[in-house]
């Protein structure tokens, strides 16, 4: 969008010039009445509240996808495709868990993502370590209804993260460039 020279104002001073051009945003600005109070945050919260009944179902779909990816690995081994699907499923849970009301599942999924990202050879990761992460995510999502299970799930996610960090520190002891990333703090289970 070219401005004509008539639209540009130039004020000349002894030691400088100030060039002012028109603001093209004024043409697309929508004026609202002062009594029209719109709160976009309130609208978003209302929309999320309307969807919240479906969060559990959506989370269970993600958990089933994770379990399927794990079953495929147990059947066929850690191919690149299987690894990528396991990572994507865990990563999606990590991203969705907080919004869907399952923060401890997100912390466990993040721990699983760290294992997948930082283990030098996934085929050498103790199979129980991955299985325990997946079982924990399933248990958190399926049993996330009572207050006592919520506190247990937080403790479970904290302990799994500790075991995963210990394993990764040991597995990467000869790779100092990875140790720094592994030992860096990340998402902690929320209270």
General description of the model:
The chain is mostly helical. It is 63% helix and 4% strand. It has 7 helices and 2 strands, in the order ββααααααα. A two-stranded antiparallel sheet has the order 1-2. Strand 1 (9-12) and strand 2 form a beta hairpin. Helix 3 runs antiparallel to helix 4 and helix 4 (103-118) packs antiparallel against helix 5. The relative contact order is 0.10. The model has no long low-confidence stretch (mean pLDDT 83).
Give a brief rundown of this model.
With 191 residues, this protein is mainly alpha-helical.
In spatial order, strands of the major sheet run 1-2
Q: How far is the first residue's CA from the last residue's CA?
A: 52 Å
* Low-pLDDT stretches: none
**Helix content bin:** 55-70%
**Care to count the β-strands?**
2
3D shape: elongated
Structural class call reads: mainly alpha
Reported for the largest beta sheet, the result is: 2 strands, antiparallel
How large a portion of the residues is in β-strands, by DSSP E? under 5%
> How do the helices and strands follow one another from N- to C-terminus?
EEHHHHHHH
Annotation field: number of helices:
7
* Average predicted local confidence, pLDDT: 83
Q: Give the radius of gyration.
A: 26 Å
């Amino acid at each position: 969008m070219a401005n004509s020279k008539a639209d540009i104002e130039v004020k000349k001073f002894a030691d400088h010039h100030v060039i002012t051009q028109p603001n093209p945003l004024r043409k697309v600005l929508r004026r609202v009445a002062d009594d029209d109070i719109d709160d976009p945050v309130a609208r978003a919260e209302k929309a999320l509240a309307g969807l919240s009944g479906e969060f559990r179902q959506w989370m269970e779909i993600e958990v089933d996808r994770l379990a399927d990816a794990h079953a495929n690995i147990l059947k066929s081994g850690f191919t690149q495709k299987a690894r990528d699907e396991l990572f994507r499923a865990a990563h999606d849970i990590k991203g969705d868990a907080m919004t869907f009301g399952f923060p401890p599942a997100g912390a466990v999924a993040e721990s699983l993502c760290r294992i997948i990202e930082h283990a030098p050879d996934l085929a050498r990761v103790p199979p129980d370590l991955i299985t325990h992460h997946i079982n924990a995510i399933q248990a958190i999502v399926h049993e996330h209804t009572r207050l006592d299970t919520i506190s247990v799930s937080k403790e479970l996610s904290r302990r799994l993260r500790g075991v995963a960090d210990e394993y990764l520190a040991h597995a990467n002891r000869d790779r100092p460039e990875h140790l720094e990333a592994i030992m860096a703090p990340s998402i902690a289970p929320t209270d």
